[in-house]
Amino acid sequence: MFPDLSSASPTAALLGAAVGLVLGLTGAGGGIFAVPALVFGLGWGVPQAGPVALLAVGASAAVGSAQGLRAGIVRYRAAMLMAGIGVCLAPLGSWMAHRLPERWLVGLFAMAMLVVAARMYRASRGGTGSAGAGGAAGACAPLPPCRMDPSTGRLHWTRQVASTLGVIGAVSGFASGLLGVGGGFVIVPALRRFTDISVHGVVATSLFVIALISAGTVANAWWHGMHPGTQGWTFVVGAVVGMVLGRALAPRLAASRLQQIFSALMAVVAFGMFAKALGV
């Protein structure tokens, strides 16, 4: 049964909308804002915030990936493989999250945020030249292990392709369970590095994987007694609305400038998480 959202404060809705907006604009990095939003905005602990953050990220990612599915740019076989392995590893991450001291968990989360911020800023400064599948910069770079078949427009499946995508799924699934994030901060840079899928295809595929892994992880948490409550459901609804807005605005805004702004904000939040971990 869903709670009456009319009794919730607007803070949860606004925080959720901000998370969904970033996820919709970037395809990665937005989900990692969800836990800090719940921790700092609503005063929750990280173990409590993780499953609700995943529910919000997963729901908004499902809405965002629907557009990619309609456009035919989601590499759904790769997504199913990564998500299947990720769902199997996510419970291990959740198990560790409930056994690590919260101070360690907050510190790990802050480190993950700094890694994402650095990658996002670096991509905004020099990633556009190699973003396409056949740019001049790409002609000089070594061929990635996972390549598209020009005759079919799909990935050319080999044992190396399957193992590479499986490792990506495993890492993203474990991170989802441990930190309560969607895993896009792992999936997007990994797909950009190890495949020649187009940028739009990477984002759409990442959102689809995030939706699937989040669904499996949330189902496991729900089975073990997780209930979002009124504030949690309000956060989820806000995230879905933010995702719709972000996907609508993404083609009209300068991606590099957005990435720089988000990476700076992420770094600030990460240092705030470090301060919380140290008890400052």
UniProtKB/TrEMBL annotation:
* Primary site of residence: membrane
Transmembrane feature ranges = 12-42, 48-66, 78-98, 104-121, 164-191, 197-223, 235-255, 261-279
How does the UniProt record describe the way this protein sits in the membrane?
Multi-pass membrane protein
Q: Which InterPro entries match?
A: TM_pro_TauE-like, TSUP/Inactive_protease-like
A Pfam family hit: TauE
Intracellular or extracellular location(s): Cell membrane; Membrane
List keywords of the entry alphabetically.
Answer: Cell membrane, Membrane, Transmembrane, Transmembrane helix
Please give the GO cellular component terms listed in this UniProt entry.
plasma membrane
Q: Could you say which protein family the record assigns here?
A: Belongs to the 4-toluene sulfonate uptake permease (TSUP) (TC 2.A.102) family.
Q: What is this protein called?
A: Probable membrane transporter protein
